[in-house]
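[Automated response] Your request has been received and processed.

Submitted sequence:
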Amino acid sequence: MSDSPTRDNSLPETNVNPPILITPLKCCRYACIISAVVLVVFWLSELFFQEAGLRCYQTYDGQFRSFECEFKGVHYDHVVSDFDEWKKEHPDQNMTLYRCFQPNLFNVFSLWDYLTHPRWDLPYLNDEHTEDCKTKESCSPCVKNH
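Generated structure:
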C-alpha cells in the first residue's frame, strides 16, 4: 500500500432542498381556508348588493304599504301576513300586492334568489306610483332603534 491519499469518487454535497410535498392534511387546511373566504365573500355580497335589505311592497293606489327589512328581522313572510290582514279589513279595495323594486341583474350572487323566491312572482309597480316607497323614513320597522 502506498502512502498516497486515497481518491474519493463521491459527489460533493449540495444544499438542494427536497421538493415540497402537499400532504392530504395541507390540502384539507387549504380547502377550509378557501371555503371560509368564499363564504365571507357571499355574506358580504348579500349585505352590499341587496339594497341593504330594504324592499317595499304596496297596492296600486298606495293604500297598503309594507316593507321587508331583513337587517331588522322583518322578512317577506311578515309582509304577506300584513297584506292578508289588510285584505280582510278592506274587502272592497284593490287586492293585488306589487313589489316596488327591480332585481339587480349585475348581482350574480342573488341569481338563485331571483329564480326561486316568491317575491319575484309579484308584479312590478313602476316608479311613478312608488315615490313614498323609496325612502327609509316611510318604513317604520326599519327606522326603529336607529
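Summary generated for your ticket: The helical segments are 24-49, 76-89, 111-116, 140-143. Confidence is low (pLDDT under 50) at residues 140-146.
If you did not submit this request, please reply to this message.
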